[in-house]
Amino acid sequence: MSDLWQTAHPWLRELVSYEPGKPIEDVARELGLRPEQIIKLASNENPLGPSPKALAAMREMLERAHFYPDGGGYYLREAIAGKLGLTRGHVILGCGSNEIIEFIGKAFLNPGDDIVASRHAFVVYKLMATLFGARTIEVPDPGYAHDLDAMLAAITPQTKEVFIANPNNPTGTLCSQEQIDRFMARVPEHIVVVFDEAYYEFLPEPPDTLKYVREGRNVVVLRTFSKIQGLANLRIGYGLAKPELIDVLQKTRQPFNANGIAQAGALAGLLDDEHQQKTRELTWEGRDFLQREFAAMGLEFVPSHANFVLVRVGDGKRVFTELMKRGIIIRDMTAYGLPEWVRVSIGTMEQNERFLAELKTLPELARRAFA
Ligand SMILES: *Cc1c(COP(=O)(O)O)cnc(C)c1O
């Protein structure tokens, strides 16, 4: 081991880098395809792109790119709070909601602490825990869903944070209001409970977790502009918590973590209900379609509450590679300990159909379908 690794924090050696969805440009370069020939269904992005109103606001803000942004995020925090019936003091902005997961770790985790998460939960919780020298207790997830009773039972005296991804990525499963309420009635008061609601806007009847923020519980609710708002490239998300908890988190962030172009786009997008509704309907239609087709092919899938579906294809890595050669990028799930599965994001109907048509040409899946 080199000297640098001797002097760096010991837990950095264990940290496995996050493996993102493969960018279109990489696939084009590696396979000699034109970017326009490639469709990306790998990172749960909005296939419609950003709201036209967000685009206009961002273009206008580009002219002001030489100014530092509003580090306090006044207008965007006001608008988020106004929409949810909270105050600006309940809102913190992040460079993606991922950054807020890091803030929570910075604020509360010391080496030797632990966090509790579900077995196939979003991997960033564990990455951030590892970064701060904390251990992740991964709780078994029957049917790929969070088992909140088991998560409660897994809490130790060292536990500082519990993460509930609702709906979860990559499984697409949802905890009900009743399960959440039972959990919240029993979880020790000093533990910070994080509800990661990156796909909240895709739910027809979302559970209410903001009531716990209003009650002054130690709860952080995470939401993002990366998914339904189609602003993943801008890196902007937010956390909602009681003002005392937001004050703690604010201390952990860099002064200009949320850039002004992102803030302008997010603010305009937030107010564009029509674009969100259109995205929701496209997602529901595409999801129904893909799930029906998977069932018809005899492929096991986890019924999804989000804008992607986890489907069991046998050799996930091979299916990923074969589809990539055909210009379709999906996500292989080896990093999540699910080597037989892939995750596919819902695209436009045209993209969904092309994905399925190509999937059906793969011999092992074709055989399954007609067996
Ligand atoms: C996509 C996603 C996020 C948000 O990512 P950002 O782009 O950093 O806002 C957070 N949690 C989950 C579960 C996600 O799938």
Summary keywords:
371 residues; Aspartate Aminotransferase, domain 2; 4-stranded antiparallel β-sheet; binds pyridoxal-5'-phosphate; Aspartate Aminotransferase, domain 1; 13 strands; 2 domains; 7-stranded mixed β-sheet
Q: What does the model show?
A:
There is one protein chain. The protein is an alpha/beta fold and 371 residues long. The chain folds into 2 domains: 142 residues, Aspartate Aminotransferase, domain 1 (Alpha-Beta Complex); 221 residues, 3-Layer(aba) Sandwich (Aspartate Aminotransferase, domain 2), CATH 3.40.640. It has 15 helices and 13 strands. It has a 7-stranded mixed sheet with strand order 2-8-7-6-5-3-4, with helices on both faces. The protein has a 4-stranded antiparallel sheet with strand order 9-10-13-12, with helices on one face. Helix 3 packs antiparallel against helix 11 and helix 12 runs parallel beside helix 14. 44% of the residues are buried. Pyridoxal-5'-phosphate binds next to helix 5.
Highest-level CATH class of the largest domain: Alpha Beta
Shape: globular
Would you identify the CATH H-level superfamily of the largest domain? Type I PLP-dependent aspartate aminotransferase-like (Major domain)
Distance between the termini: 52 Å
| Unreliable residue stretches | none
Q: Per DSSP, what share of the residues sits in E-state strands of 2 or more residues?
A: 5-15%
- The CATH topology of the largest domain turns out to be Aspartate Aminotransferase, domain 2
Rg from alpha-carbon coordinates? 21 Å
Tell me which ligands are bound.
pyridoxal-5'-phosphate
| Strand arrangement in the largest pleated sheet | 2-8-7-6-5-3-4
Largest sheet: 7 strands, mixed
**What is the level-2 CATH architecture name of the largest domain?**
3-Layer(aba) Sandwich
Overall pLDDT, averaged? 96
SS summary, helix count: 15
Helix content: 40-55%
Write down how many β-strands occur, each being a DSSP E stretch of 2 or more residues: 13
Number of domains: 2
* Classification by helices and strands: alpha/beta
Topology order in helix (H) and strand (E) letters: HHEHHEHEHEHEHEHEEHHHEEHEEEHH
